[in-house]
Amino acid sequence: MGKKKYSPQETDYKWHNAWHEAGIFKTENQNKQKKYFVLEMFPYPSGNIHMGHLRNYVIGDVIARFMMAHDYSVLHPMGWDAFGMPAENAAREHNINPKKWTYENIKVMRKQLQSIGLSIDWSKEFATCDVDYYHCQQLLFLDFMKHNLVVRKNAKVNWDPVEQTVLANEQVINGRGWRSDALIEQRDLSQWFFKISDFSQELLESIETLSGWPEKVKVMQKKWIGRSEGIEIRWEIVPNAIDQDEEILVYTTRPETIFGASFIAIAVDHPLSKRLSCSKTDIKNFCDQEQKRGTSLSELEKNEKKGINTGIYVKHPLNPQLRIPVYIANFVFMNYGTGAIFGCPFADQRDMYFAQKYDLPIIPIMENTNTKNSDDKGKAFIGNGIMINSSFLDGMTNTEASQAIMLHLEKQSIKGSPIGKRKVYFRLRDWGISRQRYWGCPIPIIHCPKCGVVEVPKQDLPVRLPEDVDFTLSGNPLDHHPTWKKVFCPKCKAKALRETDTMDTFVDSSWYYMRYITPHAQEPINQELIDPWLPVDQYIGGIEHAILHLLYARFFCRAIKKIGRVKTEEPFKRLFTQGMVVHETYYQLEGIKKKYFKPEEIFFKNVDGKNCAFSIYDNSEVIIGPLEKMSKSKKNVIDPTQIITSYGADTARLFVLSDSPPDRDLIWSNQGVNATHQFIQKMWRLIDNAKDELQISSTKKDMLLIGQSTKILKNIEENYQKLSFNKAIANIHELINIISTPLVEIYEKNSNEITRFTVRYILEKLIIVMSPMIPHFAEECWQLLGNTGLVAQQKWPELYCITEVKSDITIPIQVNGKKRAYITVPMNADDALIKKNTLNLNIIKNILQGEKPKKIIIVSRRIINIVI
Fold this sequence. Notes:
Belongs to the class-I aminoacyl-tRNA synthetase family. The protein is an alpha+beta fold and about 850 residues long.
């Protein structure tokens, strides 16, 4: 009999070392036909891994090991998304250099990730703050400039007053900074931009080629790119003392509603708004107030709809006698369309609210056909209808009217030019990459008073970050450095200044997957080596990156193709977005604030039939809150390293895969972890106890048991392919249940040679099949059965080979619960034939002594029970 318990504390590191010494996860850059590039989104080195990391990287590891077993050359690397504000904040708070803080965290997290048993090729490791990496990024920046993919321009930006830096529109959530949660202000600054808008159409069109991406992610990207087809319409300003011979250009996607127009609205930063602000205090105050808000379209759409009457009127293009008032409104976006719209309250709910607020006319222009219509409660008409009160459009459907009015506006003219011109606009704006912070990739630009903007010569790269910076001052430490920014112009040798802005950290993560092929080369990308590996076959990460990171990475891949360094356009062939790990929250109310408790700071007891939580400190009752994403701020965090230390890596791995489909949220449960650990222990006991009897070889198998097992093993394989790991684990439970009885019989020396060999045969297949999920345990079981080599190097079993049809099956016979004999019968024998042949066996006749048995029970052709 073997040892009773499986001890991962004794075995996990043994197998880590064995895999490392064998070098089985190291990938050579060979142009193999069967390649597979699996990649999880790389982590920010915050100091410790969390449960989200564990789930993310275990999913990727299972895929990598599965593909290795199928004889693919697998690239499964790891790096660190290492630049960013948290390091600077730590520097200010703890008086530590960001570089030191970052690399110390990487060291800790690397060890934690290695403890999970990931099949990572650590020789490919790098951090984006490595000088080699950001040197290559600076080279790419200069290549982008050469190919007109970079522009410097003044722009209204989102200013985070806490982080003292600019944020992209995508980094503003509900009007607040995505990291600091500070209310965002608008500022006009000179910024560097990547011209992602040049790729709007192809980024949109190629979404249809991403068949391996979740539909919800593709929809989110389509909406963000936001292609709209409409028409620009010229509205003449009614002349007055201030405005002579001017017009406002309006863009609309609903031209058929023009006869319902009751106001024009322009953006607060429209040229006309700026000019009026110089002479009218009320307009200036309104514009100043609204410009403190975020600049993103989504944020402006959420704001209360407010405006101010400019006192200016325009002539209706199709009825010059009709005067339409011009408002400055906070819901019009200058960087979308022309920065001006006409408002038709009848057909737009936002315009309806605005018209009701400022007592503007609401003109019915459509009659309902079979869709929702406007009513007395102030709801706008939002469906299809027949045009009314719309001159020559009357009687047309709104779809017919849209085309008719555009043709009409293109033919009509004002001052010799058409009133209307069809136009396609995109919501997607150029990507502002300038950040006013230290811990980022320096932008390789010099500002010369004589030559203007000058590129740093490639031979002078990298532009290194200085380490002797002062974080006690507010703002960007690079601005305050006494010498770093002072240089001589490469062209005229005059005194000049370095660019002190650094790149948005999303630049770092937009091309990192390419760097894994040659992580330590001097050139950013070796096309000969990288082209065979792209695109990434399976990318894994959270859906929160659907717009930010994933869209930027798609742009970067196209931009790098444009500069001639890769052939592929799409970076990720398949995308999997895993669910979050969630846990109950526990808190007490202190006024309007919540005081949160860690799970280990509370205990439970039953009160009047209800499960209640109490503080371990003073026994006061604690409110059990909803399930929420694990976060330090709400203290509902479970440390993965504690789980690994207590239960072993495979318990942690199996639990995060087993409790729910991997694309859904996983509810953390200590009971679930315990149950998972007990299941592993059960498998160990069954195999360990029977191992001595399983050292056997034979040519005959129990084909009924083989057939049942093969079907389940095939189901496991199919669920791997679907990434349905929870179902694969359920299949493993099913198979263990089937072979448990034979294993116990083998241990009790109550089985024949055929059963013993069949069970061993199935176990070897099962160990290989379950090894991607619980690799340490699988290696230990493989060794336990006397096999040589590593499970991680075994080929996936060809499961169809064990479903060969045999003519006979062997069934054990029990008499009053005690095994007495075996019988071999045809595979297609029915119960009547089995009973007949059983009773004709001499051993059974001798036991019965001529008596008739009370019962003969045949259990699933697995066993025959005779009751006498």
